[in-house]
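Please review this one:
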Amino acid sequence: MSTWFTRRRPAVELPRLSPRAQRAPAVRIDLHEVMPDLLPYLGQAAYIQLEQFRTLSRVAAEVSDLPAAERVAGAAGHALSKHQGIAAEIRRRGDDPAAAMRPFADEIEGFGAVLVGADWRETLLAALVAGGLLDDFFIRLAAGLPGDIGPRVAQLLGSDSGQEGMLSVLRDEIEQDPKLASRLAMWGRRLVGDTLLVARSALHLSGNRITDEERIEPIFTELIAAHTRRMDALGLTA
């Protein structure tokens, strides 16, 4: 089945960030205006974590250095734990996790194919970039969920994701091969647009491009700022 990940996609215009020393105060928006319904939110979030687990498991199988493979496998385990936690929230509502995730299968599996790089290092960076952006995004949206489920989901998604382990593996690889840095920086920049498309697909937007951009720009500005910090931690340009 063809999805918009397998077709030529329009360029994604990313929010422009102010210089770090001059960053404006965060703008608060009413998340209820753009929030998806609860079950689709949970289904998409659960499938994203499952796809993250699959991606990291494949990387762990390709890494020959045992300590590095162990750190990547640990990150895969964290993604699986998050998936299981969100699935438990779906069951708590009396719904079936598989049925809740099924509408997002083509989209997210297509996105998973986009994350496969030329080697395991690129794929690991893709998991770091996409996982970080999407965790941040779904944590941000959790504030608009009804009742006490929002704090539970936010705490779950904000728990240890193994990012420090992934960062350390990539730092070691860059130290051993400094030329790798420029390739990874370029690859990381390519991934951001596709990842933000997945995030946007979760929102209920009006179809009015100007109004929608004004409403969601603060969310995406925060996401890009956090992404920039992760790339900084690797010594790469976001």
Residues 1-27 have pLDDT under 50 and may be disordered. The chain has one domain: 31-233. The domain at 31-233 is CATH 1.20.1260.10 (Ferritin). Residues 53 and 79 are 5 Å apart (CA to CA).
